[in-house]
Amino acid sequence: HSIKIPNEILLEFENNLILCYTNSDHGNKNIHDDQKLNSKKQDTKKLIKKNVLLVYQMRKLLLKGNLKNFGELLNDAWQLKKSFSSLISNKYLNEIYDNALKNGALGGKLLGAGGGGYFLFYTNNSKRNELISWIDGFKNISYTPFKFDQHGMASWKVRT
To answer: Percentage helix, strand, coil, to 5, in the chain?
Structure first.
């Protein structure tokens, strides 16, 4: 469901989100199968319910503009997500995530199924440059600028 976020909140939110390419692919293609298998376990079902409630809390915080708490709950969501399957994260991704927290991130999310690709981190504006500098200096990961778009994807052809 789409949500209507006031423009000033959306601009701050966009500014404080940092997209980080991990320079690793998604590796194990069985992540979804493993998650599906684990989702039948009673303990995992409880964690999934907890995650759904967390998402509703995050939605409320986003609508109210309480972005700091949103970022902190993003961290809680990542910790829950990792418990759905041992294939979602690995030593390298955990190292990136833990160091991002030490360098200004409040929380983050690995985009896609897991195992690699992009991390999306949330930070306060005052820590934004610190986090980007750390990303650009750490191993072979990189900061990837992006902007929200209200109209969908646009593409063009270069004229020759």
So the answer is: 50, 10, 35
